[in-house]
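Summary: Need help interpreting a holo structure output

Steps to reproduce:
1. Submit the protein chain below together with the SMILES for PPS.
2. Request a joint structure prediction with the ligand placed.
3. Inspect the structure token block that comes back.

Expected: a single structure record containing both the chain and the bound molecule.
Actual: see attached output.

Input attached:
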Amino acid sequence: QRAPVENGALLETLKSQVGLFSNKSEHYSAQVRPPGTSRQIPQTIIIGVRKGGTRALLEMLDIHPNIVVAATEVHFFDWDENYVKGIDWYRSLMPFSYGNQITIEKTPGYFTSPQAPERIHDMNSSIKLLLILRDPTERVISDYTQVYYNRVESHKPVQLFEDIVIKNGALNTKYKAIQRSLYDVHMEKWLKHFSLDQIHIVDGNTLIKDPLPELQKVERFLNLPSRIMSSNFYFNQTKGFYCIRSDGRERCLHESKGRPHPLVNTTVLEQLYSYFREHNAKFYQMVNHSFDWH
Ligand SMILES: Nc1ncnc2c1ncn2[C@@H]1O[C@H](COP(=O)(O)OS(=O)(=O)O)[C@@H](OP(=O)(O)O)[C@H]1O
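--- attached output ---
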């Protein structure tokens, strides 16, 4: 009979010898450091936007052998109570990586946070940022839908979309979900600290319809070899979205991603489209790129 292994380091060596760490995702679930790896501060951050498709982008980039991703949203730069814990705390939440791998975290709240741009710049002024955006009106509805489901689950009262968005016959521009969709207002703050070529914008509407070309653009932006393939995706009819095939596994995003949206009154939709139009035009000018938003 073999003696039980008590020594952590020995266990680590044995596991690596029998190839238990051959799969990327196993690295993270096992809280042991695979030999030759360390935790790194992210070289790239997905800064938002909330409901833009940040989880899909992160999970799809995780297919790449030169990318490792943080499992949860870290909220280091946007929550003061985390920021005061310091950079070592931030690093401790990152997965183990090899020298040829880039670490990425995503926290959608960074994009609209007043403090995040300066704090990220203080950490690494030459960092590469990823920003995924979708039609601002669709984003507002998605934001509402998420809050709606959260409230239903916690047995809180809910309101119709139209009753929140319209107050005294006019558009309620103070509604937080509307504020978050003012991409020009938020982008202006990022461009005070970063040059435009440090921020790559992913088209969230395109990522839903045809993910590969958007991911290939990200590979180029990050100077990574092209490794994500069309065979890494399959369309799941039931979910109505693309799902991921990688490391011999197939997986779709959590059921909270890609939920049906409420049917919104067309007059209210038009009010939202027209409110965002001017902001969108300003944003296109800022980033030298147009999107086919309403
Ligand atoms: N492949 C795939 N599968 C499922 N969902 C997908 C996918 N690609 C993009 N999306 C869109 O991602 C939207 C959620 O965005 P986020 O992950 O940024 O949301 S969050 O801010 O982290 O809560 C989510 O918004 P909703 O449709 O409103 O649920 C999706 O439209």
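--- end attachment ---

Reviewer comment: The chain has a mean pLDDT of 91. The radius of gyration is 21 Å.
Status: needs-info
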